[in-house]
Amino acid sequence: MLRYIYILCGTLFVSTLVSLFTHSFSLLVWINTLFNFSLLLTIIGAAMLVIQGGFFNAIIRSFRTFFRKINPMNHVLEEIEGKKQESTSYPLTSFSLTLPLVYSGFALLLFSVIFSWYIY
């Protein structure tokens, strides 16, 4: 729970700093900056979630099998040496910040959309 609060406060602080250093500070600039940063957090968290789920492992395994099959030199060498095709298992990566990034980014995204709709 503490990670969520740190990410929320950090994003609010960074978006405030970025909007302060623009040409003219206004509420609209701050809301737009907050929306952009929260969208970035959500996209990064979603990409981490896809990688953590092992989506790309099957694609990598398929490419390696395909290139092993179309290379005649490897095929002949494997037959001579009597090697079997091993099925390689890739370890699943796990990130500790995946869900905090997704939830915090989505919460700030909803906040900025509702706030901008209410104000403007």
UniProtKB/TrEMBL annotation:
Superkingdom of this protein's organism: Bacteria
UniProt entry keywords in alphabetical sequence: Membrane, Transmembrane, Transmembrane helix
Residue intervals passing through the bilayer: 7-31, 37-60, 97-119
Domain (DUF3899) ranges: 31-116
Pfam families: DUF3899 (PF13038)
Coiled-coil region list: none
InterPro entries, per database record: DUF3899
Name of the featured protein: DUF3899 domain-containing protein
Species in which this protein is naturally found: Peribacillus psychrosaccharolyticus
